[in-house]
Design goal:
- The structure holds two protein chains of two kinds.
- Chain A is of the alpha+beta class.
- Chain A folds into two domains: 11-172, Creatinase/prolidase N-terminal domain (Creatine Amidinohydrolase, Chain A, domain 1), CATH 3.40.350.10; 174-416, Creatinase/methionine aminopeptidase superfamily (Creatine Amidinohydrolase, Alpha-Beta Complex), CATH 3.90.230.
- Chain A is 30% helix and 22% strand.
- Chain A contains nine helices and 20 strands.
- In chain A, helix 1 runs antiparallel to helix 5 (165-173) and helix 8 packs antiparallel against helix 9.
- The radius of gyration of chain A is 24 Å and the shape is globular.
- Chain A starts with 10 loop residues before the first strand and ends with a strand.
- Chain B is α+β, with helices and mostly antiparallel strands.
- Chain B folds into two domains: 5-175, Creatinase/prolidase N-terminal domain (Creatine Amidinohydrolase, Chain A, domain 1), CATH 3.40.350.10; 178-411, Creatine Amidinohydrolase (Alpha-Beta Complex), CATH 3.90.230.10.
- Chain B contains eleven helices and 19 strands.
- Chain B has helices spanning 18-34, 50-55, 117-124, 131-134, 150-159, 169-177, 181-204, 211-224, 232-235, 294-312, 320-333; strands at residues 5-7, 13-14, 39-43, 67-70, 76-85, 109-116, 139-143, 164-167, 236-244, 265-274, 280-288, 344-346, 353-356, 371-374, 377-378, 386-387, 390-393, 400-401, 410-411.
- In chain B, the strands form five sheets. Chain B has a six-stranded mixed sheet, sandwiched between helices. In chain B, strands 13-12-14-17-18 form a five-stranded antiparallel sheet.
- In chain B, helix 1 (18-34) packs antiparallel against helix 6 and helix 7 (181-204) packs antiparallel against helix 8.
- The radius of gyration of chain B is 23 Å and the shape is elongated.
- The chains are: A alpha+beta, B alpha+beta.
- Chains A and B meet through helix 4, helix 7, strand 9 and strand 10 of A and strand 1, strand 2, helix 5, helix 8 and strand 9 of B.
């Protein structure tokens, strides 16, 4: 029997998360990035704000780096601390963390990744000169800080900047077999927590208690090192009107759960190895209202409609537009929300809806959340609110035959007696 | 009694009064006036905890986005997102991001999505005083200026002829560092939360559990007693190290599922938790599973004494580096290594608030009602180092501990 992929692997800060990176996988990722760089005609790539969309986590195993420099060959450089090193400045580039308060340790996941303190633009300029090129590629060019821009202008005044984020996004989002192992762990983790929720969600408890216990269970099972978005998105009694998207400040204490309530639980966290997936189901304390059953079945129809179209070559915009037409043809409405987005080391990877990336074609082995929303019609005088909707949240694999749901949790309203 | 709210996406309570928010805005306006500015612009408001300090609300945000704008009067403007809207332009609605928490419940705070030139101008031209009448462009005080995006800077220069910028980061940090009585009440509550969490560790720390089990239990205890947040690496920061007591420290890194605690171990725990009103509490203690070794007893006694020396020196007017010198001289005298860490620092909406040791803000003299963490590490270079850590409020009589957890080695 094959050992678990995390057997014998070290952990970030002793216990926060397992560093599941084989050398082969990191080599693959770096090679994939370099392939895009070559296609785009850039010899050097600077990754800015790499924690956004998970680039830093994906390439160097840490979200706390300030900048990553990827040359076409040789070692990657992960910069910690954005001191911009002056010409001929003697600057100690050893990463030292004793001046930080409980920092996450700098990982050492690959011999071709060097971790340094401070950014040396002059070192970068020497690389560009060696390549005979002055085209610098960027991830997240829009986030370039003013001081960095001035610094680069001084060192390489004739450089051309090219943002290639949208070219690398679909490559990063296409998962390798190793990544799929990590994703499957995350999926099974959520299956276990979803199975436990009927014991956790009980009349008399508050959502604060339920949310805290849900997060605890996820952490016990191996989630960690990143956000844990496990909480009730909606809760309340459908007879009392719209169950609002549960965010922001509400008066405390919240009322306790009681019979008749519906609780829409979101489980969006990572598994062992750090990959995110998500699952969302409604838990009903007693039989759900007939209207809710109706809208749930419509939500599943929309989800299936989208899933059938999660195929290579299709765009999420096409799926959204078609699904709007579909739900309208059934006589109902939807909400303009981002319900098709990939996940990786973070829960929002492009391409996704209502974004410049929404016209990038899907590829086989991308992994997507699929949760279209059906707007609930409660009648003429209810004062409909924008987020009064119903939906299921599931994780799908893009295949030639359409999206394949990755979890085995039944797509039903879960009744807790 | 203030109305109490719960932030449903984090689980944290919020009961700051409107008067407290008004006080903060007033204190910033005093700074604005004293510096002769038209506008204070806080860039990357998550850095330093400013989003929360000004609006009472916080949520995940990108370092490159968002800001807080404060003028001489009128509402302060809490900007989310990074869109730039010249005069007459309307930014499209952003449907790509999910609905999140973070709405302010206080008067005097207006939230908008994106940087609108008209809004910035409106804030900067508030009475009294008028940049146009006095000549010259807008005089903007900038906080966290190193985070200013290039395109945002260009936008400001294009939209506002003659705008000038003055870095007031350390000055605003100094204002925020001095806690009000209401803030101190919340920080005492945070300290009580830490006391409970560390008391719960007396159950969690036991033989045949993994380090990660103890960590999960302590975080869960924190989340049940007032802590909250989607990313516990921020809301419940924790460093735990276990090892056989009395022998040289182990070098190897544990592999999944981590190190198993056994009889004869010492477990050192440092933790910061974000509690009510998004203010942090802090503690650092050591637990032994069995009778502690003589080295550990000596090290602990030294850590406790080092902390007492620092606490006695926490009086208004003193600089942190002078307090640090006293501590390191003491450690030296006991034959231990000097502590190179930032073991003295402010605490508030972030774990490292001004003043911080080994940081430009260490030039900021201590003032009454600052809250300072004292967490010196005692190390002999051979055995596992340990730390006695607590949060103290600066008073003319010296630092007064906010919590009450016993300052002893905990023998289990």
């Amino acid at each position: 029997m094959k050992p678990d992929y995390y057997t014998g692997k070290t952990m970030v800060a002793r216990y926060e998360q397992v560093q599941c990176f084989t050398r082969t996988e990191i080599d693959r990722r770096i090679a994939a990035v370099r392939e895009v760089m070559a296609e785009e005609g850039v010899d050097l790539l600077l990754i800015l704000e790499g924690d956004w969309e998970g680039y830093s986590q994906w390439l160097i195993g840490s979200k706390t780096t300030d900048l990553i420099l990827v040359p076409m060959e040789g070692a990657l450089t992960a910069v910690y601390g954005m001191h911009l090193i002056g010409k001929d400045e003697a600057y100690d580039r050893t990463v030292r963390q004793e001046r930080e308060i409980l920092p996450q340790p700098v990982p050492a996941i690959h011999p071709d990744i060097r971790n340094v303190r401070g950014f040396d633009g002059y070192e970068m300029a020497r690389l560009l000169k060696k390549y005979g090129s002055f085209v610098i590629g960027f991830i997240h060019l829009e986030t370039m800080r003013a001081d960095l821009r001035d610094y680069l202008k001084e060192i390489v005044p004739d450089a051309e900047y090219k943002d290639i984020t949208l070219s690398i996004d679909p490559v990063k989002v296409t998962k390798s077999p190793e990544e799929m192992e990590l994703i499957r762990n995350s999926v099974t983790l959520h299956e276990k927590v979803a199975a436990a929720l009927p014991a956790i969600i009980r009349p008399g408890r508050t959502m604060q208690q339920v949310n805290a216990e849900t997060r605890y269970l996820c952490h016990e099972l191996g989630s960690g090192g990143a956000v844990c978005l496990n909480f009730a998105i909606q809760f309340g009694d459908d007879d009392e009107g719209p169950l609002m998207h549960h965010s922001g400040m509400v008066p405390y204490p919240e009322r306790a759960l009681r019979k008749g309530d519906r609780i829409f639980m979101l489980l969006e966290s990572n598994g062992i190895g750090g990959h995110f997936t998500a699952l969302g189901r409604n838990y009903c304390l007693g039989e759900p209202k007939a209207e809710i059953v109706k809208f749930w079945e419509l939500a599943l129809k929309m989800q299936d409609f989208a899933a059938e179209r999660l195929k290579p070559g299709v765009t999420v915009k096409e799926i959204f537009d078609a699904n709007v037409a579909y739900i309208h043809s059934l006589g109902y409405e939807t909400n303009r929300q981002n319900y098709l987005h990939s996940l990786g080391y973070v829960f929002g990877e492009r391409p996704y809806l209502h974004d410049i990336s929404e016209t990038i074609p899907l590829r086989e082995n991308m992994v997507y959340l699929n949760h279209p929303h059906v707007r609930i019609d409660r009648g003429a005088d209810t004062g409909k609110s924008f987020y009064d909707d119903l939906y299921a949240i599931d994780t799908y694999l893009v295949t030639k035959e359409g999206g394949v749901r990755q979890n085995k949790v039944p797509r039903e309203l879960i009744v807790i007696e | 009694m203030n109305t109490v709210f719960i932030d449903t996406s984090t689980g944290r309570l919020q009961n700051l009064s409107q008067e407290e928010i008004d006080r903060r805005i007033r204190s910033v306006r005093e700074l604005l006036t004293a510096e002769g500015l038209d506008l204070i612009f806080v860039v990357n408001p998550a850095c330093g905890g400013y989003r929360c300090w000004f609006t009472g609300a916080s949520g995940p945000e990108r370092a490159s986005e968002g800001g807080i704008l404060i003028g001489r009067s009128g509402d302060i403007v809490s900007v989310m997102g990074g869109g730039l809207a010249p005069r007459g332009v309307r930014l499209p609605e952003n449907y790509s991001q999910g609905v999140t928490g973070g709405n302010s419940i206080y008067r005097g705070v207006t939230e908008i999505e994106g940087f609108y030139a008209e809004v910035i101008e409106d804030v900067a031209r508030q009475e009294p005083g008028d940049a146009d009448m006095e000549g010259g462009g807008i005089r903007a005080g900038i906080v966290n200026g190193e985070w200013m995006r290039a395109d945002l800077l260009d936008f400001l220069r294009e939209q506002f002829d003659g705008i000038t910028f003055e870095d007031i980061t350390e000055k605003l940090a100094a204002v925020k560092a001095v806690k009000s009585e209401e803030e101190l009440a919340s920080m005492r509550e945070a300290a009580r939360m830490m006391d409970k969490v560390f008391a719960s560790a007396c159950v969690s720390v036991r033989p045949q559990v993994y380090e990660r089990d103890i960590v999960n239990d302590m975080r869960y205890a924190a989340y049940q007693t007032g802590c909250g947040g989607p990313d516990y690496l921020e809301s419940a920061k924790l460093r735990l190290i276990s090892g056989t007591d009395g022998v040289p420290a182990e070098e190897e890194e544990p592999v999944w599922p981590g190190r198993l605690v056994t009889e004869g171990d010492r477990v050192d725990i440092r933790m910061y938790c974000m509690g009510t009103n998004s203010l942090y509490g802090m503690l650092a203690r050591s637990y032994t599973v069995g009778e502690p070794s003589e080295q550990t007893k000596a090290m602990w006694e030294t850590a406790r004494k080092a902390q007492q020396i620092a606490a006695a020196a926490l009086v208004p007017g003193v600089l942190l580096r002078d307090v640090a010198r006293l501590v390191n001289e003491f450690l030296d005298s006991r034959g231990y290594q000097r502590d190179p860490h930032t073991f003295l620092h402010g605490l508030g909406y972030v774990v490292g608030e001004a003043p911080l040791l080994y940081h430009p803000s260490e030039e900021l003299p201590l003032a009454k009602n600052m809250v300072i963490v004292i967490e010196p590490t005692v190390s002999d270079g051979v055995h596992q180092p340990l730390c006695c850590g607590d949060a103290f409020v600066v008073t003319p009589e010296g630092g007064k501990r906010l919590g009450t957890f016993p300052q002893e080695l905990i023998r289990l």
